[in-house]
Amino acid sequence: MLGNDITIPHLLIFFPLIAGLITFFLKNDVSVKAWSLFSVIVTLFISIASLYYSSSAALSGLTFNYEWLKYLGCSFSVSLDGMGRLLTFLTAFCFPLIFVATYRNSYKNSKMFYGLMLLSQAGLMGVFLSTDALLFYFFWELALIPVYFLCSFWGGEKRIAATFKFFIYTFTGSLLMLIGIIYVYLHTAATPFSDHSFSLQAFRAVNFMPSQQNWLFWLFFIAFAIKMPIFPFHTWQPDIYEQSPTAVTMVLSGVMVKMGVFGVIRWLVPLFPEAVAKFDNVVIGLSVIGMIYASLIAIKQDDLKRLAAYSSIAHIGLMCAAIFTTQQMALEGVMIQMFSHGINIIGLWIVIDLIEKQTGSRKISQLGGVAHKAPILTIMLVVIAFANIALPLTNAFVGEFMMFGGLFKFNVWYTAVAGLSIIFAAVYTLNMVQKVFYGEANSITASMKEIALNEKIILSVIVVAIFMVGVYPQPFFELTKDTVAAVITRFK
Amino acid sequence: MILLRQDLDENMNAIILTAICGIIMMFGGVIFKSKATPKYWAIAGLVIIIISNCLELTSGDPFFAIDVRNMLSFNSFNLTFITVALVATLLYFLLSATDIEKVGANVSEYFALIFFVLCGVSLAATFNTLLILFIGIEIMTIPLYILTGSDKRNLKSNEAALKYFLMGTFSTGIMLMGIAFIYGGNSEGSFFINNINLGEGKMPVMIAIGMVFMMIAMSFKVSAAPFHFWTPDVYDGAPTVFTSFMATIVKVGGFIAFIRLFENSFGQVQAQWQMLIAIITAATLFIGNLTAVFQQSVKRMLAYSSIAQAGFMLLAIFALNDTAKEGLILYSVAYSFATIGIFAILIKMRDYTIDGFNGLAKQQPVLAVTATVFLLSLTGIPLTAGFQSKFYMLMAALRNGHQHWLVVFAVLCAAVSAYYYFKIIQAMFFKEASQDVDFISEGNEVTPTFKILLITTAVLIIVVGIFPSIVTEWLHYSF
What are the residues whose beta carbons fall under 8 Å from the beta carbon of A152, sequence distance 6 or more? Predict the structure, then answer.
């Protein structure tokens, strides 16, 4: 690797962190943008390098341990397993997309904006990398703080209230999880320095009574459910997606909601298998209700951003349901869908942002005929829209198909009801495409122009990614094989 | 696992030196001609005390070897706490000494009183008999009655002083009554705290009554609900610069006395009084947090928030284990530093309402950013000392293994606290100032030194948040 002291997980966390801190001290806007774009591209390369170490022998080089709080048995231990690599890659991949796509947006006090964005990237990397519960909790909260400032400072009109709601929701959830973490910690075995340990292995080694698992499960699950979000903890989400500056919305919906899914797979399911088996119907039920509910609301939405937000709730609901089926097929589907959903939703936001910037409106009822004015944009959008509905050949098809397959094995009725959400997705997505892009151009859309080069490049990258993953998803299965296997073995 | 160093040497550095400094400062009113001189003497004196105390902590060599006949006990926990209190006071002097000068004419006396309070805190942290506890608590509070009323021409200050004095003496009376009951309940008649006749099975009635009285009296001193009613008025009425001192060093001093008393005297029968303290804790958390939400004045909000924070510190007394003691030390650091910092900023402000902070970040970015760190620490966000301290408290309470509902209740209250702390952050960063007024009141100026000190404090809070062991290190070694 790169010597014993600096490993790839380190670079993934500390490079964005230091880059972000440097950004605060840069002078003019051009250098801020150039520097932050440069740093996210470097991070992307580091992440690509991590993908090459696929064998388990090389994996030891991707692990790092440092006694951090010695007396507590907490260490700064980071490691890249399959799912970690997938999600750090997603994070590293999304940030350049976001930065290039919003390159022309100007922000007041841009060094703060980009600095905070990079800090949130560092926080996200930390969440996906840490194999120590306390460290995980640290990053879990730290990823939130930059986003809080980003939304409250650069967001829309009702930003303060929306962000505050978001913050209080997630903070409450996190604190409940903290209790859970401490409780599990107090039951772990002793280490040479301390009575207990926060490491993931130690956590997994604890065997709890079913009664203990039952309430520990909910302490953890509520934190993750708020983050994902799962019905009925979702009410913060449409508001914050609507009010945030678009770049932040992309981070939130593309990457940050994956924290919840990731948390369930990494920290909840392996720790409390019996409770998972006990509450699977409750969770899947909530997820399915959320899917249908969010899809129905999405049909009625007139605001493009809110439509995308509710559509996202529906997609995440399916992922959550799929995890709790504990079927191998479904879990593999979740893995690939985490990546696909991140790409697709960012593509959708980019298009919405472009339309809003040019026409000043996000209302479906006010728009129309964009296709005449911007044919390339329309082609790109249609592909992304198809991916959102999960048509075959697109990336989402692979994931959704496998997740529904797993759900079908678990219970046919859930599958039947959840399957309605695909139809609803087609209804609201195609309705949106039809009303916004086709028909006659009106006074609002008359000024629409074709998209610029940077936007073309980014949307092409997304479209290519959609097809590539849709046609050849095998590398993703290979990548996340170990994680899926590790989770499944807990249930045998 | 904490291995406490129990020294047989009698190390009274802090107690004696604070008393000497207090007396010097008292005469300083006659000696010093300039109004600005006392603060330099006070800071110098405090630095000497800190150094001597640290020497004592690290090497165990006392300057004054006095046979205290086991009336005082010095171990690494007590000494660490005294160091924390002294360092916090130093920080307070550095940040706010110029504001102390503005309160009134008797500058030197104010410093003298603060040194006496520190002497009381040192006694309250090291007592081994109920009598020393009583003396310590009284030395700690009587100067505060004077400091509260030091703004003589301000009616609110007078009212606060009188209220504080009446309530304080009332609780002192209860404490004395408690001591008398405990003394009477002991067949041999002893004041030593580790020598109380706790009986087999249930506590003897006399002792139990005494214990409840002690609990009530201590709850008064640390402003735990339902004995907190004096706190908002007194904190609000007192000159802000003294509120800062009262809400931090004195309050954590009270907590150290509280935990030492209950650990050493009633620790063995914890099961019999744990429910009582759990209810007090829950009530304190609930009332403190809920009432703070509705405050418009930042000063009053901080008064209620100090009640809320006291609720979290009470978890240490509820848990009463090594983690709790370690956590209480950390909490003292986190809470004192952050509160002293936020008060130092508040003193400079023209308008004490939350709206008065609107748009502060534009005009005074350093003040706004450091205030944000202090508020994040009070909320308990990771990377700040406040998180570590809250984390230790929760861990202590869970490790105790009883009454898990209290822990869940505590974190829900902590989530509520985010609401009012973040209101100030929102005002500073995301709202516009109503007109082009100066945020800083006349006569106060934000000097570069002040800014550097604020930044230092903020950095300290973050460093402790990442490496809490620099504070708790001493508790883990035995000599």
Answer: A159, A160, A163, A164, B426, B429, B430
